[in-house]
Design goal:
The protein has helices at 13-31, 37-44, 48-60, 77-89, 91-107, 149-156, 160-169, 183-196, 240-258, 263-269, and strands at residues 64-66, 73-75, 110-117, 120-127, 142-143, 172-174, 177-179, 199-201, 209-217, 223-232. It has 272 residues and is of the alpha+beta class. The longest helix is centred in the first third of the chain and has 19 residues, at 13-31. The relative contact order is 0.10.
Length: 272
Amino acid sequence: MTSKKTEKPAKSSTVHSVVVAAKLLEFLAESGRPQRVTDIATHLGMTKARVSRHLSTLSDIGMVARMPDKSGYRLGPTLFRLSNAALDQYEITSIAYRYMIALRNQIQEALLLAIPAAGDALIVSTVASGKELGPNLVRGTRWSIPTSPTASVILAFSPEFVRERVLARRAERQPDREVLLDPTKQRREFAQIQRDFYAFNEDPHDAGFSVISAPIFDHAERLEAALSIVMTRRQSEVSQESRYLREIKQTAIDISRALGSVDMADKMAATL
């Protein structure tokens, strides 16, 4: 009896189309602003005709939307509806939550978990301090450089092209002033964060709250999120940075290991 040799089926054109669509959506998400077909094609190494076909299909189902002046494409309304549902099912929020509760019970300070969002830090989970005068942290809020240590941590461990894109165009506007970003100074801060695995600012948002943040990594040793302690700014013999640094790093290490990180978790542990 002769046995038939099992051949690995070739990827279908449908699978290839799905892969291309995913790359298009990821590029638009990382860009943080509308992109022209020419620029998308150049970045992905595809022809303009192929990119246009896929964008047309994605536009039909609301995954992308064409700008009114036809200058380019942005993410569409369907993705924004799906993103809210995705946050509720996001694995890291359920994995990290018990570690966050344990840390809050230990230090009695508010905590937040943020993920990368086109160069910003998007808050996906919070734990209140339980204090009467504690910070009001809202899920779905986006924090940006140069004022947010959480965003600085996320960008420090993001791909270099993402950092450079943000540095090239970012100036954070606030109601009463404009915070100008110094690219050279910001790059030095990123390098320091990469060495020390944390960022601290005594009062980054001029709201009377200090923030200390540490990175969380996944099984592929990529940045998954940033964990931050947000505490009422106060003077004491021991600085808040020194007081909470070991605790937040250890919790970030524990969450990273729960997500499968080995190398990056070990590197962060070596800085304790």
